[in-house]
Design goal:
The chain is α/β, with parallel strands linked by helices. The protein contains 10 helices and 31 strands. The chain folds into 2 domains: about 280 residues, Spore Coat Polysaccharide Biosynthesis Protein SpsA, Chain A (Alpha-Beta Complex), CATH 3.90.550.10; about 110 residues, 3 Solenoid (UDP N-Acetylglucosamine Acyltransferase, domain 1), CATH 2.160.10.10. Helices cover about 20% and strands about 30% of the residues. One of its GO terms (molecular function) is ATP binding.
Amino acid sequence: MLKPQTPAPLARHAMAYVLAGGRGTRLMELTERRVKPAVFFGAKSRIIDFALSNALNSGIRRIGVATQYKAHSLIRHLQRGWNFMRAERNESFDILPASQRVEGSGWYSGTADAVYQNLDIIEAYGVRYMIVLAGDHVYKMDYEVMLQQHEASGADVTVGCIEVPRAEAMAFGVMQVDQEDRIVSFLEKPADPPGMPDKPEMALASMGIYVFSTSFLAEQLRRDAADPQSSHDFGSDLVPHIVRNGRAQAHRFTDSCVTTGEEASSYWRDVGTVDAYWQANIDLCDVVPPLDLYDRDWPIWTHSELSPPAKFVFNDEARRGMAVDSLVSGGCIVSGSHVERSVLSTNVRVHSYCDLNSSVLLPGVTVNRHTRLTRAVVDSGVRLPEGLVVGEDAEADARRFRRTAGGVTLITQPMVDALTA
């Protein structure tokens, strides 16, 4: 007697389309040379690696990435770290810059237009489902669970949602849902966000994750492209239209969030401001981090540079190389200095008699002697001068560098150069 076969995962019939063209201006100087999804995160990854890793770990083997502004570092990272997809295994990885492929089009005019301009490429793959993702959020999620819900509900679109307190939901697009989580209205940054039926004090906010059948999405994109009044955006145009004229379903992130079981709650962050970016990095330093990068069952794939091991040198009483409650990447040398609750990316050099606390250093930073940093973010390649003190005098920090409302100081090389100009 034949055993019943387990249905094939829906992810194998899906394509993930990652929107990675946003400017990310709220990250200030961190996005002067790179687009937001290409910003370094968590000592060795880029922000976009989370959406891409979620897709790969979920079983999706066709991925497209739409790029636009300041895309060189992002494209270089994708070419180096995500070039292992093989056509002979029915896999694909497409980098899709805005390239005037559609007559009359230039730059992508909105998130929906970024998919519409590449619709012929998508349809050529013959995938059954499309999952559209923002490339600038940090989280771990099994998209297969969301695909299964989409299929079972018969929805035209399923929208990934996080639960946020109503008082904080004014900054999001909010889904008003019925008892079955069918979306009855979509409200963009409402002054009085509606509560959830089962949790009146909480609201469902959009994560910028959408699942469609490919045929339905193509139909909607062509309709939207022909509408001169549309801004050609998923959140502003396509999804509200479907809510009014079709069936839109909410998918709660808590149903598909990937954890090890040790975390206190599900973790999703929009790291779109310097304060949020700093906090999400520092969160990783917790003994039990809310986002576990050490989970081998759900790895965060990335391009890993060839680098030697991290090294800590000198063990004198006043000159001891050490790091506690910190992430320290390969190629780092901590020489006779103290590092606490900080994130050191690849190839950071910390010279003697320094004290680093609650700071995030991107790749290739050099910290010269007698430097003290507290609550700082240092851009890649910066050479900090000897004796620099940051995080102890708010007025001095604001004069010299970029100091945020949350008390985090962002330091770039032009800011350092201006100190001696």
